[in-house]
Amino acid sequence: MREHEQKERDKTREKILEELLVYAANQEVERSEDDFPPDEELDKLFLPSQGFEKTMQRLIRNQRRKTMLKRILKMTVKAAGFLIIITGVFLTAALSVKATRTEILNLITETTKEYLNIKYEDRTVSDDKQDNLFQDWEQLYLPEYVPEGFEIRKTERLIRICTVEYANREGVMITFSYAPVSGRTLSLDTEEAAIKELTILGNPALAIEKDTTGIPEHKIVFNNGEMSFYISSSYDMEELIKMADSVRFRP
Amino acid sequence: MSINDHEKLEELYGNYKRVMLYTAYQILKDQQLAEDAVQTAFLKIIPNLDKIADTDCNRTRKYLVIIVRNVSINLYNRLKTRSETSPPQDFENLAVKEPLLEDIIISEESLSWLLRSISSLDKKYADVLLLKYAYDYSESDIAGLLDISSENVRVRLHRGKKKLWDELERRDGYEGA
Q: Is the pTM higher than 0.80?
């Protein structure tokens, strides 16, 4: 009986402590902050870069699209089927050990009317393996084939994403980027775009072509089981595919 | 709903981009990285827009600062070194020694102390406590928002509470058991 009373007492105590914390935490977040300089001063300190403003405006625009889409979906009875198409792309042939891992590496695409999210999921690679992958990051992947006249203009590495920009004399750019597949999600604008499935480096890949502004936009998304690659340019798609298929590891 | 998600997002960005950039910059000391952190923070906030009722209040401002601060710290840690392993999440101190019920109820002074001490608590613990107790997030939601494991969230909650109770005990000389 005493034990029971003690338990009840402990429970009540815990509940009260939790309630106290709820009260204290709510008071704390309502409290006005004076840890920051006033906005006018911050404006002088930080002028966000144009690129950042552009990115954020795009983010807001995407949200607007999503909001509109939500509204449409609410009004459409059979809308659920329209929103998400999940495509698992598998290899079926007899596979080596490496290929077996690749087999389970699915290229998952979520397609909406206006954009495409591509997410890689590898159910076989453990976290440890991913860590190892990450340590290998210093080594480089590059296409062996680059269309004539193109040269590396800029390279950039930000956290997990490595980007190489090529340009020719006419100023046409080709962007090649890659990152470990783990957790990488690419969001691509696919409104009014033609999407083609193909095989690059022996793995499922997507080629996306869009031409709504008069300047063609060509994008290729592919992977080799460990890295996900992305090529983007207005240049000839066949050349870009050739380039993609020539990506090799350069120790 | 009186305001659309995108309008809400636009207002949040307009109202708090400076404070968020400032918070990120204080940690990362690099404008480009600070901008990346703010962008990442917004990507985390977008799925939680329905939790934001008012776009112009201290509560919302603090919420955004918590998110961007944690994104920035994570980014900083990732950039700093790859080889460091994360600190072991030991559970040895998880048994929080709490003050007795009667001790807590009696002291109004203790309550005001508690209010003050949350704000002076190490941000690592304060952020998790605030997300749970003020913003009503579950442990797994907090884990997602802060890019840490649920276990880590539990450890921080326990340690945060323990620090509060220990300090309370030290300050007022309560007999905790």
A: no
